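step=predict obj=Class I SAM-dependent methyltransferase n=278
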Amino acid sequence: MVLKEGVQSQMTRTRQRQCSAVIAEGCREAGVSDEHAISITTQWKMEKLKAWRLEQNRTGLVLNPSLKSVFQRFFGGMAGLAEEQPFHVLETGSWQGESASWIAEHILKHPESILVCLDTWNGSPPPENSGYEMAAIEDRFRSNMARVPNGDRVVAFKGTSLESLANILASGLDSRFDAVFLDGSHEMKNVLRDALLSFRMLKVGGVMIFDDYWMRGVAHATAAFEEALGDYLEVLHRDETHLVVTKAANERFSTHGSELLLGDSSRLQKLTSRNPTA
C-alpha cells in the first residue's frame, strides 16, 4: 500500500512538473517575460490548490498525496515509535485539519504526546482563499479533531502565528518540539518569522517541513532562512512543493540565533528587504 501511494505521489509530482514546463514553454514562445511567466505558473498552481480544497470540502478529509509522502518519509520514524514514547509537534496553518489529522492518528499515540496547531482561521489575502467561508473551515477543523484518533491530544490556538509563537517561546518551551510543520502565511516576512521562532523551539535532530515551497514568498523566505542559519541546520529534502530541514547540534545557536528570533532586528530587516513579500 505504501509503495502504491508512493508511486501515485510521484506520478502526481511528475504531472505537475510537466504542466509547469508546458506553461513555461508556451510563455517563452509567446515572448512573455520570465517574471510574468512565473506569475502565470504560480496562478495556475494556486488554482490547482483551490480546486483541491474545494474537492476536499465536497468529498471529505483527504491529505494531499505529495504531502502524505513527505510525512511518511520524514515523520515515519516518530510514527514507528509513537506508542512507546511521547512526541511534541508544532503546526502553523491548520485549515480544516488535513495534516493535523494525519499527525494525530499516526504520531500522537502516547498519552503524553501533543500537537499544537496555530491558525487565525481568517484565511489568506485574496485571491488565495477567495470563496471560502472561514467560519465553516474552522468548525470543520474542530469537528475533525473531535473524531480523529487521538484528536484529544491536539491543542489549537486561534490567532496570528507571530503572537502565538512568541507566547509559546516566552513560556520557556525552548527546544521542546520534535517536529514542526509550517503551512501558514505565504508572505515572505511572515514565513521567515515563523521559521525562525519555530526553529528555536525545535529539538536538535528535529525535523521542520515547509509546505508550498513553490510560492514566491515561501521560496524567498526559506532562502533567507538557510542563509541566516545555515550553520545550524541540514537540508534533508527539497522539491517543487516542500523543503525539509533538521536542526544540527551547535552550541552557538542559543546566542547567535536569538538575534534573529524577535522579528524586528536589523538582520531580519535586511534579509526581508532583499526580496518581495509575496
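step=describe
The chain has one domain: 62-273.
step=end
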